[in-house]
Write a structure and sequence with these properties.
Shape: globular
Bound molecules: zinc ion
Number of helices: 15
Strand content: 5-15%
Oligomer: single chain
CATH class of the largest domain: Alpha Beta
Helix content: 40-55%
Order of helices and strands: HEHHEEEHEHEHEHHHHHHHHH
CATH topology of the largest domain: Rossmann fold
CATH superfamily of the largest domain: P-loop containing nucleotide triphosphate hydrolases
């Protein structure tokens, strides 16, 4: 691995290389961009470059970690004592401090050590000149964790580099955002993502060979849609392909031009059914905590899919030559109908649907919250 392996992010890579080459490391970085576009890889390469015993190249265009020295290898294995990597646990919507990170024990074997983000950023480096603390999904830090983090940012240790990885900067307090140097990661090109997704799916089909239920093979149109919906994230698109989201969103979006209370009810039912189908496929009991979590996730995705149609409408309304890249390009006729709704209706619809997702995240009854969000959107529909 080297920085060159991080594709389609030339400005982010150049910025990081330049900071190391000119020894101008900020105390804190914010890597902003969709999931799965290389933020984590870039954070790891940055740590390697800072720790590496004999980096290659010296200038901002070529400097790279050697990838061979003991320090580089330990970063790759996630056991370098000066690299702290924090992420949320599976199936949690937020995370709090303290967290656990993996460290190498004195005899070289991996050991578990509990350390908080705050503590890690205050610790003296053990081997390198600096410590690197990476917080993945930083926007999911809960409020008290974010406040604690702010204190660290206000009084940074000269030995620490903090790297926050984040897909949605609007969910972090402005006081944190303003204290970080921003590095923007762009969505990956559509065709590149689609090709990668096809490869991941092919591997999945190969792995499932011989099982009773073969993995569904999504159509090209479905793959194109999930790539756009996932904002260019390969990982997310591959998860959504073949999940049934495609069929569901086609049905939901098709109903939007005639959205009324009755439609909202039936749409919420369809969303609920999809959540149950996902639960069956994941082998969880429907009335268990896991089953509930799957249905909540499904409902949030479904509301996001509906919201994307209104986002498209806003784009289509100003798109004179029809060249805008719509998420719901496969349902352009519906999008164009929505584009004829009053301009403030699109933004309000998106806000209501985002609010619905928040309600579901806060454990409001999933089906009711889904129906209610759609019902409120139906009131924005102009009377004919
Ligand atoms: Zn090295």
């Amino acid at each position: 691995m080297s920085f060159d392996a991080i594709q389609y992010q030339p400005s982010a890579v150049r910025m990081l290389r330049a900071a190391v080459a000119h020894d101008r490391m900020p105390h804190a970085y914010l890597f902003v961009g969709p999931r799965g576009v290389g933020k984590g890889l870039a954070a790891r390469e940055l740590a390697k470059l800072l720790f590496c015993a004999s980096p290659r190249g010296t200038d901002a265009d070529t400097i790279d970690p050697c990838d061979r020295c003991d320090r580089c290898r330990r970063v790759d294995r996630g056991v370098h004592p000066d690299l702290y990597w924090f992420g949320k646990e599976e199936d949690r919507n937020d995370f709090r401090l303290p967290l656990v990170t993996r460290r190498e024990g004195p005899d070289g074997t991996p050991a578990w050590l509990t350390v908080t983000v705050i503590e890690s950023a205050a610790l003296m480096p053990m081997e390198a000149a600096r410590t690197v603390t990476v917080v993945d999904d930083a926007e999911l830090l809960n409020r008290s964790a974010a406040n604690a983090l702010l204190k660290t940012l206000e009084e940074p240790s000269p030995h620490a580099v903090l790297v926050l990885l984040c897909a949605d900067a609007s969910r972090l307090p402005g006081t944190i955002l303003s204290r970080c140097q921003w590095v923007r990661f762009r969505p990956l090109p559509e065709e590149f993502v689609a090709e990668k997704v096809r490869r991941v799916l092919a591997e999945r089909v190969a792995a499932a060979e011989g099982e009773d239920e073969p993995a569904p093979v999504p159509s090209a149109a479905e793959i194109a849609y999930v790539c756009r919906f996932a904002g260019g994230s390969i990982e997310r698109a591959a998860d959504l392909a073949g999940s049934g989201l495609w069929d569901l969103k086609r049905a939901l979006v098709a109903r939007l031009p005639a959205l009324d209370a009755d439609a909202a009810f039936h749409m919420a039912q369809a969303v609920q059914d999809w959540g149950k189908a996902l639960g069956r496929r994941e082998g969880v009991k429907q009335d268990s905590t896991e089953g509930n979590a799957v249905r909540r996730r499904a409902a949030r995705l479904a509301l996001a899919a509906v919201a994307s149609a209104f986002g498209d409408a806003a784009l289509a309304a100003v798109d004179r030559d029809g060249g805008a890249r719509l998420v719901n390009a496969d349902q352009r006729d519906v999008v164009e109908t929505l584009a004829s709704w009053p301009p403030d209706a699109w933004a309000r619809a998106v806000a209501l649907l985002v609010d619905g997702q928040t309600q579901i995240r806060r454990y409001v009854h999933t089906e009711l919250a889904t129906e209610n969000a759609l019902l409120q959107v139906s009131r924005l529909r102009p009377s004919v």
